[in-house]
Amino acid sequence: MVPMVSGNSHPKYRIEYSPDTVDHFHCLTRFQQVTVLDLVEKQLLFSPDRESKNRKPMRPNPIAPWELRIGTLRVYYDIVEAPESVVYIRAIGIKDRNKIRIGNEVISF
């Protein structure tokens, strides 16, 4: 039996990871890596610009204008609408109190 999908089942956005995120993934456990990949796909393919409990626009910063929260993990991303709709994953980090570890760097927000 084929599951029924209502509406358009094709993603509105394409996900693209920046080259820097390769290093960021190496600092995560395998479980964390799989979790990030799974939830980025589930949360950002269709409505990355819709604010929710786990998706927040950020104050101006040098990393990215949007944040996806996955427990203590943070995914920082940007959205481009034209010429095609793309979500650019800029950074992936781990939050510890008021600091974020992105790769081997610790950043305060």
How would you characterize this protein structure?
By secondary structure, the protein is an alpha+beta fold. It has 2 helices and 7 strands; from the N terminus they run E-H-H-E-E-E-E-E-E. The protein has one domain (14-108): YaeB-like fold (2-Layer Sandwich), CATH 3.30.2310.20. It has helices at residues 20-26, 30-44, and strands at residues 14-17, 55-57, 66-70, 73-80, 86-96, 99-102, 105-108. Strands 1, 2, 3, 4, 5, 6 and 7 form a 7-stranded mixed beta sheet that branches. A hairpin with an 8-residue loop joins strand 2 (55-57) and strand 3 (66-70). The radius of gyration is 14 Å and the shape is globular. The chain starts with 13 loop residues before the first strand and ends with a strand.
| Total count of helical runs of at least 4 residues | 2
User: Which stretches are poorly predicted, pLDDT < 50 over at least 5 residues?
Assistant: 1-7
- CATH level 3 topology: YaeB-like fold
The SSE string, one letter per element, is EHHEEEEEE
Name of the CATH homologous superfamily: RelE-like
The geometry reads as globular
Q: Helix amount, in percent?
A: 10-25%
| Count of folded domains | 1
Q: For the residues shown, what is the average pLDDT?
A: 90
Main sheet summary? 7 strands, mixed
Radius of gyration: 14 Å
Strand residue percentage: 35-45%
